[in-house]
Design a protein that fits this description.
There is one protein chain. It contains 15 helices and 8 strands. Helix 1 crosses helix 13. The protein is globular, with a radius of gyration of 19 Å. The chain starts with a strand and ends in a 6-residue tail after the last helix.
């Protein structure tokens, strides 16, 4: 069994508990132990780095040092956490003076970071480390006939590299295809969902969400698959507000990619946190496991 230092981040303790459940379940099926880091701390989320870069990266460096002490690479399910941790890791490895400043701060906790850790997003770990062949071998309930819109969001990918490749990405699509899903193409898969803008400029954020939902709906998506807690909650929680503002009738389930993996692996929906969502995923479950399974899953419309 391959072991990683698992960095759940703050969201997976609360609003994204379904992501945590499905991440652990699917990883176990693939022979991976996600060992939660002891005494991990917040990565600084999206705003701290704009207030005090040194303190913000000190938070991330502490997590990196804890993983290094355990001689394990880090896996982060949250795209925002992944971005912060990987950015800090790269900055430390590229700038000796910066590394010295951060390690001086870490001395308070008797920690030191030498730069031996690799930071993976959970999807990168599944696709690049474990491999799609291993994923394919676990598929017992292919997502046949399920039209899935992969939503990358802002932080999962190297956008510059994507543009150099003509804007085309295949990581998410390859994984979903391996699960047997019908992967739809739509132009907003890398557009920002509005993030924390929903708290500061609600009208602008709702407009961004409308564009995303409209793009997926026009492509006849049965479900949107996401990799980030904030993206998931924005796309799901605010569908009602988008409908009121734009006189639309969106009711598109928004699930974590690990929940779809789990369904394809034959894991019971409840163990994947399915049934807790605000927009019912009954039809998604029915498509994969049959109507009887769907009727057993409580969901709020």
């Amino acid at each position: 069994m391959k072991t990683y230092a698992y960095y759940p981040g703050c969201a997976l303790e609360t609003m994204a508990a379904s992501y945590h459940l499905s991440a652990v379940e699917t990883a176990h099926k693939l022979g991976v132990e996600l060992r939660e880091m002891e005494d991990w701390n917040c990565c600084g989320a999206t705003s701290y780095s704009h207030i005090d870069e040194l303190l913000a990266e000190s938070l991330c460096a502490r997590n990196l040092a804890i993983a290094e002490r355990g001689k394990l690479d880090i896996v982060a399910p949250c795209s925002g956490c992944y971005k912060n941790l990987s950015h800090s890791d790269a900055h430390i490895k590229a700038d000796a003076d910066w590394a010295e400043h951060l390690n001086w701060a870490l001395e308070e906790d008797e920690l030191h970071y030498s730069g031996t850790v690799t930071v993976h997003h959970l999807m990168h770990m599944f696709v690049n480390e474990i491999g799609l062949d291993a994923v394919r071998k676990q598929v017992t309930h292919p997502l046949k006939g399920l039209r899935v819109a992969p939503y990358y969001g802002c932080h999962l990918v190297d956008r510059d590299a994507a543009h150099r490749n003509g804007g085309e990405l295949h990581l998410f699509e390859d994984l979903l295809s391996t699960l047997g899903a019908e992967v739809i193409s739509y132009p907003y898969k890398m557009r920002c969902c509005g993030g924390s803008l929903i708290a500061t400029s609600r009208r602008a954020a709702v407009g961004m969400l409308h564009d995303l939902l409209r793009s997926a709906a026009d492509a006849k998506a049965d479900v949107i698959a996401t990799t980030c807690p904030l993206c998931q909650i924005n796309l799901e929680l605010y569908q009602g507000e988008v409908n009121r503002e734009y006189e639309t009738e969106f009711a598109i389930p928004v699930l974590y990619f690990t929940q779809l993996m789990g369904l394809a692996f034959g894991i019971r929906p409840k163990r994947l946190g399915i049934g807790r969502e605000l927009v019912s995923a009954k039809q998604v479950v029915a498509c994969v496991r049959g109507p009887k399974s769907a009727t057993k899953q409580p969901a709020r419309a």
